[in-house]
Amino acid sequence: MTASILQAIYIFTAILGVGITAIDLAGLLATSIEVGSQEHHANVGQSEHSIDANAHSDSHLDSVASTFLSSLFYLRIFVYFALGFGPTGLITKSYGYPDLTSAIYASTAGLISATAAYLVFKIQNKALDSSLQVEDLFLGKARVIVTISNGQMGKVRIATGQSVTERYAIAEDPSENLEIDAEVEVVSVHDDHIVVRRRKDLPLLETKQM
After folding, report:
1. Per-residue model confidence (pLDDT) at position 42
2. Of 29, 90, 112, 191, which has the fewest beta carbons less than 10 angstroms from its beta carbon?
3. Residue 78 in 3-state DSSP?
């Protein structure tokens, strides 16, 4: 019974890890090709600073968004753990290793895979953070690439100078629906997301450091 349960766990985590990683890599490749076809050099960056374009902000929505993105990050790390754990477990079982030995090898491979992914993500973020100034986000041309609706988080692409950055975003007005390709303007910038609204003729807003 224990062996069959362990085998089932290996199969599940192998499918989860390999499947989602393949989808993730395919998405990154598609984004790279799309951005590379433009006349801009694509740099996906995030800032560790927060700047408000106006005095009003929805702290509750910001907190929910931050928690959501943090959960996604750790879920992604778990996927890479599964990528090492599942296939290694299946391989060791196919060679006739005892359950305990197989689990140790699989767990070790999973931890190595997850740790490597975590370090790579951190290095990428540090390298990309310096490629785009936060102030540039307010000046760039932004459009929605993942629908923002019903207070849910979406995604926008901002072209500024010779750089293109993609950021998770929520609408300033939770009831506003921002469809794909909608032109938007940045209201505020936070560590892991931005707040946007539909672009319209407005006087230039003064920014301030949070």
Report:
1. 37
2. 29
3. helix
